[in-house]
């Protein structure tokens, strides 16, 4: 079969746009993330392996745009569905997320915050409906004003890995973790921010009692929020973190 050069070029540009968490670690123990191979397997009639990471079709240009903040895609990315399994972390433990761009390239966007949320599942998270999940922000890192270093730049410097600590006070139970990079390199223009959310089923153990109320995905962000419609090409003296207030228990 002959494939035209222009088609190859088009495919290459499609692949170049995506970004996803291919691996994660719970207190240092490796867990399988979602791979594009699984998307292609499903497309070809095969099965997606049983993993705790969610399936998503973040294939086109790879991100959720502000114009899609009112859609289900803002929860766990496009056409997302839960992983079949659930990983386990004790409250106070650490979850590390390894991000990859196309073909094992490092994360390409050095400007923007990194956020983590969790949402309690009603029962097993493998049956969760993303549009019903109420997200509680548990971590958010923006820019260091002294060094003008964004969280995304720190991630790149740390082998594309970001570590989030699970709040010690959170009640045990089944949760969906929502880990997200918001890339701001084009955010000075309307609809230019790029949200990259990724989801994982994680059971929290421990003796915490906090059950903070959360925010539906479609209410997390607005396209004209000052941290979303934001010109990063300036000396930044303040950055207004998008999303609801943070749970610090
Ligand atoms: C970065 O992390 C990936 C995924 O665990 C690993 O394969 C790679 O060896 C790491 N690279 C460095 C320089 O540590």
UniProtKB/TrEMBL annotation:
GO terms for molecular function: hydrolase activity. Its EC number is 1.14.99.56. Gene3D superfamilies: 2.70.50.70. Residues 1-17 form the signal peptide. It is an enzyme of class 1 (oxidoreductase). It is found in: Secreted. Belongs to the polysaccharide monooxygenase AA9 family. Residues 18-237 form the Auxiliary Activity family 9 catalytic domain. This is lytic cellulose monooxygenase (C4-dehydrogenating). It catalyses: [(1->4)-beta-D-glucosyl]n+m + reduced acceptor + O2 = 4-dehydro-beta-D-glucosyl-[(1->4)-beta-D-glucosyl]n-1 + [(1->4)-beta-D-glucosyl]m + acceptor + H2O. Pfam families: AA9. CDD domains: LPMO_AA9.
């Amino acid at each position: 079969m002959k494939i035209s050069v222009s088609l190859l070029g088009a495919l290459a540009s499609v692949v170049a746009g995506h970004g996803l968490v291919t691996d994660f670690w719970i207190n240092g123990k490796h867990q399988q993330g979602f791979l594009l191979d699984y998307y292609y397997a499903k497309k070809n009639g095969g099965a997606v392996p049983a993993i705790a990471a969610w399936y998503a079709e973040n294939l086109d240009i790879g991100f959720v745009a502000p114009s899609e903040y009112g859609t289900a895609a803002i929860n766990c990315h496009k056409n997302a569905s839960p992983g079949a399994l659930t990983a386990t972390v004790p409250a106070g433990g650490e979850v590390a997320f390894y991000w990859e761009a196309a073909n094992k390239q490092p994360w390409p966007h050095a400007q923007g915050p990194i956020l983590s949320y969790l949402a309690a599942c009603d029962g097993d998270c493998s049956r969760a409906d993303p549009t019903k999940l109420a997200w509680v922000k548990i971590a958010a890192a923006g820019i260091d004003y002294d060094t003008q270093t964004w969280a995304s730049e720190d991630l790149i410097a740390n082998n594309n890995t970001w570590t989030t600590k699970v709040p010690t006070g959170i009640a045990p139970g089944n949760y969906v973790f929502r880990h997200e990079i918001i890339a701001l390199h084009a955010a000075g223009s309307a609809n230019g921010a790029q949200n990259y959310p990724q989801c994982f089923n994680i059971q929290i153990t421990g003796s915490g009692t906090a059950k903070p109320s959360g925010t539906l995905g479609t209410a997390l962000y607005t396209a004209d929020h000052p941290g979303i419609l934001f010109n990063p090409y300036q000396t930044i003296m303040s950055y207004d973190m998008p999303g609801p207030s943070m749970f610090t228990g």
